[in-house]
Automatic annotation (TrEMBL):
Belongs to the ABC transporter superfamily. Energy-coupling factor EcfA family. GO terms for molecular function: ATP binding; ATP hydrolysis activity; ATPase-coupled transmembrane transporter activity. ATP-binding (A) component of a common energy-coupling factor (ECF) ABC-transporter complex. Its main location: membrane. SUPFAM superfamilies: P-loop containing nucleoside triphosphate hydrolases (SSF52540). It is found in: Cell membrane. Keywords: ATP-binding, Cell membrane, Membrane, Nucleotide-binding, Translocase, Transport. It comes from Culicoidibacter larvae. This is Energy-coupling factor transporter ATP-binding protein EcfA2. InterPro entries: AAA+_ATPase (IPR003593), ABC_transporter-like_ATP-bd (IPR003439), ABC_transporter-like_CS (IPR017871), ABC_transpr_CbiO/EcfA_su (IPR015856), ECF_ABC_transporter_ATP-bd (IPR050095), EcfA2 (IPR030946), P-loop_NTPase (IPR027417). Forms a stable energy-coupling factor (ECF) transporter complex composed of 2 membrane-embedded substrate-binding proteins (S component), 2 ATP-binding proteins (A component) and 2 transmembrane proteins (T component). Pfam families: ABC_tran.
Amino acid sequence: MILKLEHVSHEYVSAVRSHTGIVDVSLDLSGHHFSALVGHTGSGKSTLMQHLNALLQPTSGTVWIDENAVTSAKNKQLYPVRQRVGLVFQNPEYQLFEETVAKDVMYGPMNYGATAEEALERAKEALMMVGLSEEFLERYPLEMSGGQMRRVAIAGILAMNPDVLVLDEPTVGLDPLGQTEMMELFKHLYDEYQKTIIIATHNMDVVADYAHRVVVLEGGELVYDGEPHQLFIDEQLAQSLHLEIPHIYKVVLNLQRKGRIAADFGAPFNAERLAEALKEK
């Protein structure tokens, strides 16, 4: 599907003060991809994400969601647009409010006009997509583990069958195993269900391990859009953008400086390939 921003700016205005969220951002996120959106707090990530499903509308510029142009003018018929791009906020499990998993996951489809029978079938399918069986349908969400609750919240978005899944800090608050399981879930949705995945994260290890593309914002402006490897292999560039180098890149670059592995050791950087290179050396 088409998903792109053309010279989009957004300014938050209140009676007390105003501040700019993003400035003149042009970005094409169309097609099937697994991308990361990074930048420090206040860089504009959340503002940009909320434009991707028209939760926010531009102060100037245009957001294209397929043939729908979202502008500063009053936009009608935004519900169908929001079905195409599912937005999952940080700690989505805190937004669970129904007495059963079934009712929570069915809420979105029914709000968009599905019958109870249709919504239940979508709920079953969505739970399967996130690795939960139908046995969870009658469970009380708040009695589940944090990781399970997060999966239920994501299932509630998937039940509306979006083409794009946009997630704000999806691994925050999880232990290392939980983080890996969550990221493997998104990889599964990308590979098996052809969902476009866009994650906002501060975790550069996640970016290096999973993303095919990384978009960097700073002060509301787009400052980098390209392959993660090209960003992280250039320490000076990464540092100029105030980004932490992923651990695997630190190890590889250090070993290259010491002559322990070849200077032309190329992507992908992972523990298995690194171990093989050390054996060969």
